Amino acid sequence: MKKAAVLAILALMTLAVVGAETINVLLWDDPYPKALQQMLPEFEKATGITVNIEMLQPPQVYTKTAVAVGKDSSDYDLVAMDEGNIPIFSSLMTPFSEWPTGKVYPKVDVKSVTPAMLDVGMWEGRLVGLPINGNLYVWMTRKDLIENPQYQKDFKAKYGYALGVPKTYQAMLDMGTFFNDRGIAAGFGPFNGGPAGVLGEAIFMWEGYGTSFIDFKNGKYKVVLDKKKATEGMEFYKKLMKISPKGAETMAHVERQAAFAADPKGVFSMFIWPAQIAAYEDPDKSLVAGKIIYSAPPAGPAKTAAVRGTWALGIPVASKQKQAAAEFAYWWASKDIAERLVEANTVPARTDALTDPRFAASKPWLAAIAESMKYATSRPRLKEIPQIQDVVKKYWIMGITGQMPCASAVDAIVNETNAILAKAGY
Amino acid sequence: MAAPLLFLAPSLVVVFAVLVFPIVFSLVVSGFKWPLSVGAGERAFVGLGNYVDLSRNPEFWNSIKLQLGFIFIAIPIELILGYAAALLLNREFLGARVVRTLLLLPVFFLPIISGMTWRFMLQPRYGPLNALLLTLGAPEITWLSDPTFAYLAVVVQDVWRMWPFMFMLLYAGLTSIPDELIEATVVDGAGFWRRQRSLILPLLTPTILTALLLRIIDALRVFSEVYVMTEGGPGSATLLFSLFANRVAFGYGEVGLASAMAIFLLVLSIVFAATLVRKNMSLDILEEKAGGR
User: Fold this and answer.
1) What would the pLDDT profile of B31-67 be if each residue is shown by its tens digit?
2) Is A54 left (phi over 0), alpha (psi -120 to 50) or beta?
3) Do A249 and B142 touch (CB under 8 A)?
4) A residues 302-341 near B, CB within 8 Å?
5) Domain A138-308+381-423 CATH assignment equals 3.40.190.10
6) Is B81 an interface residue toward A (CB < 8 Å)?
7) At the top level of CATH, which class does the domain A16-134+310-377 belong to?
8) Which of A13, A156, A160, A257 would you label with A394, given CA atoms 20 to 30 Å apart?
């Protein structure tokens, strides 16, 4: 009798395990998905779906997806794709039009996604990923510095115009130099970390000076960089490097955050990915929480460019749990969750959450994000981007640190990128 | 005839699966254009194409130059430090055991922790090394942002972590030299340097060569500590061979090309091992050396 009862319990447990749906999800590691993770029990309770989330640093997300997601098999049922990698993985993902309808949560209406972000999920005319965060360059300026009456007076006396949020590259340089030379704060916080980030900085300057990097025409990618304008952009960044903190040559996000938010002097102004705002506005981690003004990036001589770095969710063609994966994506992209993610100081991709008047006062960066979206600029999107951004990083750093003339660095970028494109058959 | 083979079979299977198969597989992959993701393109046989591509790639030759420089700068320094410490501590004094044990501590550091520690120590503004410079009135140095300093920092980190390994092996070698031999040379009037040249170094040669061989093979594969310190930068200043192979495989997604690099590294290791082992460590030569004395 006892034996039979034990066997029956074991059989029931086995049935429960086999019957329960479990999905494996691969995400990038930053405050946004972490905030979502806090809400996960609600989803699991509502749907009965167990979600195994694996969070990795962005380069490792690319590697893991490349290795673990194939045409016939996939270790993951849902993966986050950085927008630059979508060309590589698009053929392995289920087009959004074929995502199943939700049983608990309705299928996301793509019109709810901010138009500037929706483009991220598109490849070769199809929506292959659901853009999930509103990540693009937003500018941070130290409010306590620009509102100081003495600094305002001294700046006006020296430069002849008012101190404030920098609206142009030149104003950014003038104001940064003012604070840097007086030892009040470093003038600028560059990003010289990973290749994708450095490419973002290069694109920011080049677009600001009126030149694009790579164009796609007649089925071919072509380098269209205007060398003169590109060199001017690089020369200008070199000037910004001179008013940047020590070690700026290798500053990645950790060092930038330390310089801006943990150093008593801090940094006057620099760009931020909205996904990281939560850390800068956390009074336990930041000396400048509540002292930052957010705006669109300053304009270059030719235009304003807000470089985009958005993530999109993809369901691998080989996933055996497409229904459950879609359900999770719909829950994540729902209005209710998006609003709660905004409350957690993160930035979803839904227009209604970003423009909700309830958040206007308490989340001042939302208006800046909306403004930045008018100037959204993408980095080149092609399969060979890993090699190309490595080339850009190498010569960009050499140019802005004076290891080689900027004009030669631009030449090398153009020549080596052309060689990569030629080898790829373009 | 069949019985011995039957008994050997399990071992042969294990050896094949663990040692031979991965190498053969790498060799096969090195003959293909093999994207990391199937989404990036189809696999295609290219013969020796990957090797040809490598030979034309200046970054590849730069990584070899940096790797060999790393080996030929770091390892001799580690050898000299290890040998000097072994000589110094090859005697008994109060606390000798404690000192010898403490000296070994860096070897037990995980390479990745060692790299992180050095990265923090060398940070501008917050790093203790720069704090010391500033206290002394010297200008701050952005160690890991300067190509030359960054390369030196990587070498110094390795020396710091691995010289005790040399000390450990050489100390063990020294303790195995009979005291009578050393006393005899003292009685014969041989001074310190003569004793080293004519007795200790010849007797330690196999130990030194073993230590060198192990360190060279280890140094050829150095990765994690350099990765966390510099990620190969600034520019390509510290892009050692293994870092470049990692970038090719997991950054550019070119697994075939990276496999060709792995095979190249294997051949390079074999060349080093063969040179050291066959020419210096064969029994014939050792016996000859012993006879010559």
Assistant:
1) 999 988 877 778 899 999 999 999 999 999 999 999 9
2) beta
3) yes
4) none
5) yes
6) no
7) alpha beta
8) A257
